[in-house]
Specification:
Length: about 220
């Protein structure tokens, strides 16, 4: 049985609850504009056409040049520490590093020089059928797109586990270039550089990139 004082209590509670949305709205509006963050648009071509990565119905990780440089990623094998689900191991005897995505592939799923690999690797839209590229230096690379899941429709039968799309830098309208060198206390040194610009006026652009690396062994041959 409700009494008048009960009705007053319920009305007061309703007024208090109705005030919460207004308070939340006021707090939201008081956030400075410089703290607002917008999603960066990343263009991918995993469906054979340029698209916003947010609108592509696939699991994709894009590693751009800035990310590769900041994380010292020099080979596809180095990506395993930064890309979820991607594993590369050089435990096979011929010095390559079989790739696997989400557990499909690797040494037990395609580490055979004469067998098809379950992870496709494309360099500037050209299919690479050999495992040795996974341990080769990435010279003048602009971005790497890692696509997870079966991609046979767009990238052939060798994309059961997924595909890696490696894109090198494009030529520039104005002359530009860079050179870099690195040396480690393990006896390893790297040299890389690129030149880009017009070749024949504005009608033809070109880009030349070179890279070299070498590393000393872990031991000394005492016989010879």
């Amino acid at each position: 049985m409700f009494r008048p004082e009960h009705i007053k209590s319920v009305a007061g509670a309703i007024l208090c609850l109705s005030a919460f949305p207004a308070m939340a709205s006021a707090q939201t509006e008081s956030v400075p504009e410089d703290r607002a963050r917008a999603l960066e648009t990343v263009i991918v071509n995993v469906q054979r056409k340029p698209e916003d990565q947010q609108s592509v119905p696939a699991s994709i990780t894009t590693a751009e040049r800035k990310f590769l440089d900041e994380n010292d990623i020099r080979t596809l094998q180095d990506l395993t520490a930064a890309v979820p689900g991607l594993v590369a191991t050089d435990s096979v005897s011929y010095g390559a590093a079989p790739l696997s995505i989400r557990g499909v592939g690797g040494v037990n799923g395609g580490a055979n020089l004469f067998a098809d690999e379950p992870v496709s690797v494309y360099l500037d839209d050209v299919y690479l059928a050999r495992l040795s590229f996974s341990t080769a230096d990435l010279v003048d690379v602009e971005s790497i797109q890692i696509v997870r899941g079966p991609q046979g429709t767009l990238f052939g039968r060798n994309a059961t586990a997924g595909a890696l799309l490696v894109a090198t830098a494009d030529p520039t309208q104005t002359p530009s270039g860079y050179a870099e060198a690195a040396y480690t206390d393990l006896g390893e040194y790297r040299l890389a550089g690129a030149l880009s610009g017009p070749v024949a006026g504005e009608d033809m652009l070109g880009r030349l990139a070179i890279g070299y690396s070498d590393r000393s062994g872990f031991g000394t041959n005492a016989i010879n």
